[in-house]
C-alpha cells in the first residue's frame, strides 16, 4: 500500500503575507519548510506564515509529521502552474541583485567579474555594455548554484576590458520583456572630476573660515588700501604711553582710559602712571630705555600725549638744546616732567638717525580738531614729522597704526595727521 500524505496545505493570501492553513490529523504535529526550485534545499519554517517579499514563482512549501520522519511529505507549489501573479512580481525582482567589479589576472589584463543572485534560476542573457546601444552577450558562464541563504547564484566574467572607462552589465530575462540593470563599475574619470570638485569646495570652505576668523586683519587691509598705502599685517606689540608734564586729573583719567582700551584690544601696554615704583628705582631715562628694549623685542610704538603746555615746554627744550649741551628745563611741579624730558632726548637721538617716526606717535586727547596743519610754524621743530592722532575721532586709525607695519606707504591717510617742518 502506497503511503499517503497526512496533511493538505491551503494558502490564504493576505496583504503582507501568505498564511498556511494545514489540514490533516489533529493529533499530528506538522513540520514546515520552504524551498526554491524543485532540487533546492528546504529551509525550515518556524511559523505558518510567509512574508510577501519572500515569494517567488519557484517557491514550494512542504509539511510532514515531525514525530514520523518517514512519512510522506505534503508539498504545495502555489505558482508552479499559474506563474507569479502580476501584482506580486515586483517582490521577485526586488530580490534579484548583480555585483560587478574589476580585477587583474596573472597576465596583468583587466577582467570584469559579475555575480547574479536571484531566488529562482533565471533563463537569462547577460550583456556587457559601454553605451545602451553597444552591448555584447556573454558565453561560457557558470551554472546556477544555491548558497547558504537559499538564493541561487550564477557567476561570469568579461575579459580584456578597458578599466579607464565605466562598463555596465545588463540582464535580459528570456521569454519576458523584463530587463534588469544597468549594473555599472565606477567611472574613474568621473571619480577624478568629483574629487577635484570636492577639493575646490574644501579649499573654498577653509578660505571662508580663515576670512571669518581673520576679519579684523582683512578690515585693516581694506583700510590701508582705501587710504593710499600698501601695508603688511603685523602682530599687536608693546605700547608705551607717556603722560604730559603738566597733567591734571582730567588728563590723567583720559591717559589711563586710553591705556585700558589698548589693553582690551590685545596690546601689551606700559603707562607711566602705572609704573612709578620702577621709575623711582631705575630713574626716568633707564626706565624709558628698558621700555624701548621691549619695543625691539616685541615691536610697537611710544605714544606721547600732548597738551598745549607740553608743546610749549617742548619748544623751550628745543631752544635750550640747539647747542647740544642738553640743559634742563625749568623745574615743573609734576612727577612726570623728568620722564617727559627723557623722551625728548630720545626723540632727538632717533631723529638724527631718521627713525623717529618708527618709534614715536603723538596723541592729543579730547581734541575737537579734525585736521592738523603741516604749515603750523608754532609746532615744535623737534616733533615735526611725527604722526599725530586726534582722539577720540581717530581712535580706529590709531589702532590700525599700532597694529600694521608700514611697507611702502605712498601717501599719508586723511585720518592720520602729520605735522612737518615747513621748508
Please give a structural write-up.
- The protein has 423 residues and is α+β, with helices and mostly antiparallel strands.
- It contains 10 helices and 23 strands.
- Strands 18-17-19-20-21-23 form a 6-stranded mixed β-sheet, with helices on both faces. A 4-stranded antiparallel β-sheet has the order 4-3-6-7, with no helix packed on it.
- Helix 5 packs across helix 6 (284-298).
- The protein is rod-shaped.
- The termini are far apart.
- 22% of the residues are buried.
Shape: rod-shaped
Give the biggest sheet: 6 strands, mixed
Share in helix: 25-40%
Mean pLDDT: 78
Question: Can you tell me the residue ranges where pLDDT is under 50 for at least 5 consecutive residues?
Answer: 326-333, 371-375, 406-423
CA distance, first residue to last residue: 138 Å
Q: What is the overall number of helices?
A: 10
Q: Specify the structural class.
A: alpha+beta
Number of strands: 23
Instruction: Give the spatial strand order of the biggest sheet.
Output: 18-17-19-20-21-23
Oligomeric state: single chain
Q: Indicate the radius of gyration in whole angstroms.
A: 47 Å
Beta-strand content estimate: 25-35%
Amino acid at each position: 500500500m502506497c503511503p499517503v500524505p497526512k496533511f493538505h496545505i491551503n494558502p490564504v493570501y493576505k496583504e503582507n503575507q501568505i498564511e498556511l492553513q494545514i489540514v490533516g490529523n489533529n493529533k499530528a504535529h506538522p513540520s514546515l519548510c520552504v524551498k526554491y526550485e524543485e532540487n533546492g534545499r528546504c529551509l525550515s519554517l518556524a511559523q505558518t506564515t510567509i512574508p510577501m517579499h519572500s515569494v517567488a514563482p519557484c517557491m514550494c512549501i512542504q509539511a510532514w509529521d515531525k514525530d514520523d520522519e518517514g512519512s510522506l511529505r505534503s508539498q504545495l507549489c502555489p505558482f508552479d502552474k499559474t506563474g507569479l501573479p502580476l501584482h506580486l512580481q515586483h517582490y521577485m525582482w526586488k530580490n534579484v541583485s548583480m555585483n560587478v567589479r574589476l580585477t587583474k589576472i596573472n597576465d596583468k589584463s583587466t577582467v570584469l567579474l559579475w555575480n547574479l543572485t536571484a531566488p529562482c534560476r533565471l533563463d537569462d542573457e547577460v550583456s556587457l555594455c559601454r553605451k545602451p546601444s553597444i552591448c555584447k552577450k556573454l558565453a561560457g558562464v557558470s551554472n546556477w548554484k544555491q548558497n547558504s541563504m537559499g538564493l541561487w547564484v550564477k557567476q561570469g566574467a568579461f575579459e580584456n576590458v578597458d578599466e579607464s572607462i565605466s562598463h555596465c552589465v545588463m540582464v535580459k530575462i528570456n521569454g519576458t520583456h523584463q530587463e534588469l540593470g544597468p549594473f555599472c563599475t565606477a567611472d574613474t574619470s568621473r571619480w577624478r572630476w568629483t574629487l577635484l570638485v570636492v577639493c575646490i569646495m574644501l579649499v573654498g570652505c577653509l578660505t571662508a573660515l580663515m576670512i571669518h576668523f581673520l576679519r579684523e586683519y582683512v578690515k585693516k587691509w581694506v583700510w590701508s588700501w582705501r587710504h593710499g598705502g600698501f601695508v603688511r599685517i603685523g602682530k599687536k606689540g608693546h605700547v608705551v604711553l607717556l603722560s604730559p608734564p603738566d597733567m591734571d586729573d582730567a588728563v590723567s583719567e583720559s591717559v589711563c582710559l586710553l591705556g585700558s582700551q589698548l589693553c582690551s584690544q590685545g596690546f601689551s601696554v606700559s603707562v607711566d602712571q602705572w609704573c612709578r615704583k620702577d621709575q623711582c628705582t631705575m630713574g626716568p631715562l633707564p626706565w624709558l630705555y628698558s621700555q624701548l628694549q621691549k619695543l625691539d623685542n616685541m615691536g610697537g610704538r611710544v605714544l606721547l600725549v600732548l597738551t598745549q603746555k607740553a608743546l610749549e615746554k617742548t619748544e623751550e627744550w628745543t631752544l635750550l638744546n640747539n647747542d647740544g649741551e642738553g640743559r634742563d628745563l625749568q623745574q615743573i611741579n609734576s612727577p612726570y616732567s623728568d620722564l617727559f624730558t627723557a623722551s625728548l632726548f630720545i626723540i632727538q637721538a632717533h631723529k638724527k638717525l631718521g627713525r623717529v617716526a618708527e618709534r614715536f606717535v603723538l596723541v592729543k586727547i579730547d581734541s575737537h580738531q579734525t585736521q592738523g596743519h603741516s604749515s603750523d610754524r608754532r609746532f615744535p621743530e623737534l616733533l615735526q614729522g611725527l604722526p599725530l592722532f586726534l582722539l577720540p575721532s581717530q581712535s580706529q586709525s590709531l589702532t590700525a597704526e599700532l597694529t600694521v607695519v608700514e611697507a611702502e606707504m605712498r601717501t599719508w591717510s586723511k585720518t592720520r595727521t602729520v605735522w612737518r617742518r615747513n621748508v
